[in-house]
Specification:
This is Septicolysin. The protein is mainly alpha-helical and 156 residues long. 66% of the residues lie in helices and 3% in strands. It has a two-stranded antiparallel ribbon.
């Protein structure tokens, strides 16, 4: 299976686990003499089965990420870490530029006047450069996701 397929399967398993957990909790108590809509013990067993599948799949995805290169010398694991940090750096610059450029109404000359503590155009330019780098890296990651293989059975 391709890495992209494994990632989609992981998202599906996570969604199914959340649904089963919610159903189990919703049926944990019922009125005496009534039967719950679903058996919480059976749901717990299903949750355990799905959790074991998810654990196996995550381990295989992580192994594939370590073995797969996005570009020479850059593993998928390192690329994902770089992407996460690029997002953090981009978000800060965007938030900083937005906060520094916020207008403030002054009704009298005696009211405090606030000035920007950063060069807004330069900060926005940095954010734009980071966004471009992030898009390029993310595109490359997505391309590799559709060519890289994940070893082992899906375990369905």
């Amino acid at each position: 299976m391709k890495l992209a397929e494994a990632l989609a399967q992981r998202a599906d398993l996570q969604r199914r686990l959340a649904q089963v957990a919610s159903r189990a909790v919703a049926n944990a108590r019922h009125q005496e003499g009534d039967r719950p809509a679903e058996d919480p013990v059976a749901l717990l067993a299903e949750h355990e089965r799905l959790a074991a599948q998810l654990e196996s799949l995550i381990a295989r995805i992580n192994a594939a990420n370590l073995a797969t290169e996005v570009e020479p010398g850059l593993t998928m694991t390192a690329a994902l870490a770089r992407r996460d940090v690029l997002r953090l750096r981009h978000r800060l610059r965007t938030d900083l530029a937005d906060a520094a450029s916020a207008s403030q109404d002054r009704f009298t000359r005696t009211e405090l006047r606030y000035v920007s503590g950063v060069d807004v155009p330069a900060t926005r330019a940095q954010a734009d450069d980071l966004a471009r780098t992030l898009r390029e890296l993310d595109t490359r990651i997505q391309q590799v996701n559709w060519t890289a293989d994940v070893e082992g059975d899906a375990g369905n």
